[in-house]
Amino acid sequence: MHWEPPIMSDISAGKQIRVVHHDALDGNTPQTPGLIRDVAFDARNPGAAHLSAFRSTVKPGAATGAHHHGQQETVLYVISGAARFRWGDRLEHVAEAGPGDFVFVPAHVVHQEINASAELETVWVVVRSGVDPVVVNLPELDGYVERAVIEYTIAE
């Protein structure tokens, strides 16, 4: 008697493993000066129901403003460079991460992302617990942010 494993996969429902190669990442998403987002998976992709994923390249010396991502939790994996994160009601907490480090940002946590180097880009991979790009900017906290060493416009 020949044993066959039970069918566990639901390929018939159109569920497939998808690969997005680095040269197919999509920059057509909301951008932040000094931070370039290249999307792999989001609401525009078939099958993306709960997660989005993208690569962020942070220009040398760049810093975001204070913001949060609503209900979305965020995991970052640092590929290269020196990443600094500030968080809290007045951005009073600080942590740094480097290549190979993971960073977790809980839902609704006010934070700021900074490239700690004025010479080199910082690159990280981001996975969020939602398919739509949610960014709630908090300009009322501008007095607490770490200022960018180099100012950028979105076109750069």
Q: Which secondary structure elements does this structure contain, and how are they paired or packed?
A:
Blueprint (H helix, E strand, L loop, with lengths): L34 E7 L10 E7 L8 E2 L5 E7 L2 E5 L5 E5 L4 E4 L5 E5 L6 E7 L7 E2 L19
Antiparallel strand pairs: 1-2, 2-9, 3-10, 4-7, 4-9, 5-6, 5-8
How would you concisely characterize the structure shown here?
The protein is an all-beta fold. It contains no helices and ten strands.
Offer a few descriptive terms.
156 residues; Jelly Rolls; five-stranded antiparallel β-sheet; three-stranded antiparallel β-sheet; 10 strands
Give a description of the structure.
The protein is mostly beta strands and 156 residues long. The protein has one domain: Jelly Rolls, CATH 2.60.120. 0% of the residues lie in helices and 33% in strands. Strands 1-2-9-4-7 form a 5-stranded antiparallel β-sheet, with no helix packed on it. Strands 6-5-8 form a 3-stranded antiparallel β-sheet, with no helix packed on it.
Q: How many DSSP-defined strands?
A: 10
SS class: mainly beta
H/E series, N to C? EEEEEEEEEE
What is the CATH architecture annotation? Sandwich
Sheet having the most strands: 5 strands, antiparallel
Number of helices: 0
What do we call the CATH topology?
Jelly Rolls
Approximately how much beta-strand content do the residues carry?
A: 25-35%
* CA(first)-CA(last) distance: 66 Å
Uncertain ranges: none
Portion of residues in helices? under 10%
| Sheet with the most strands: spatial strand order | 1-2-9-4-7
Question: For the record, what CATH class applies?
Answer: Mainly Beta
Mean pLDDT equals 90
CATH homology superfamily name: Jelly Rolls
Give me the Rg, rounded: 18 Å
* Shape verdict: elongated
Tell me the count of domains: 1
